[in-house]
Amino acid sequence: MATGRVLAGYDVPKTLPTPLECLMHLTLLDVHLDAPKHISCGLCILRSSPYLQTANFKFLIQNSIAFVEEEVNVVAFLEDQFSEADSLTSLLTVKMKGLMGTQPQIMFLKFILTSSPALKMVYANAEANISKDAELTMMCELMECSRASNEAKMSYS
Q1: 125-155: per-residue pLDDT in tens?
Q2: 107 and 142 in contact (C-beta within 8 Å)?
Q3: CA 6 to chain CA mean position, Å
Q4: Residue 9 domain-assigned?
Q5: Residue 29: which domain range?
Q6: Residue 2, domain member (yes or no)
Q7: Which residues have C-beta within 8 Å of that of residue 136, sequence separation ≥ 6?
Q8: Which helix (H) or strand (E) holds 111?
Q9: Which helix (H) or strand (E) holds 42?
Q10: pTM reported for the whole predicted model
Q11: Which tens digits make up the pLDDT trace of 10-19?
């Protein structure tokens, strides 16, 4: 298991020079979707793992995206990071915990849904203190999102 803090301390390429061909199961803890280096690190690992089947993410709960301007900057960064060429061809199952319904979290979930043609199941667990508006917005956006896999299902709690 790796934490986002440890991995994000370095300059992160889009993909690693050598694919992580033995990596089939990944767990990332303390993922900051408000920190570009954390986002880049997670995406680099995902893009460099051609046989990854399961991915577990635990988002760090914090209020560091307190200002709309900061969130807009993170969303712009995420839009630059995601491309149609990204494909997580072997990813079957994704578990995400610590969801607060922020736009970066929604975008990350959409990236998984649109980039994973073999995806079977996404388990999305919201934090207990998520606002009802944020929860409803997140669920509506995810339900309307086109998916690379016709078989992808989502469990939300």
Answers
A1: 988 888 888 888 888 888 888 899 999 998 8
A2: no
A3: 18
A4: no
A5: 25-61+71-156
A6: no
A7: none
A8: helix 103-115
A9: helix 36-47
A10: 0.81
A11: 577 888 999 9
- Contact between 59 and 34 (Cβ < 8 Å): no
What are the tokens at 86? Answer: 């990204």
Q: Residue 2: is its pLDDT beyond 50? A: no
Collapsed DSSP state (helix, strand, coil) of residue 154: strand
**DSSP states of 70-106:** HHHHHHHHHHHH--TT---TT--EEEEEEE---HHHH
Segment 46-104, tens digit of pLDDT:
999 999 999 999 988 655 444 455 667 777 777 777 766 678 999 999 999 989 888 88
In a domain, residue 35? The reply is yes
Q: Strand 121-126's sheet: what is its strand order?
A: 2-3, 25-31, 54-59, 93-99, 121-126, 153-156
Contact 126, 99 (CB under 8 A): yes
Tell me the C-alpha distance between 19 and 156, whole Å: 32
Whether 1 is covered by a domain: the verdict is: no
Q: How many domains, in total, are found in the chain?
A: 1
Residue 8 pLDDT grade (very low, low, confident, very high; cuts 50, 70, 90): very low
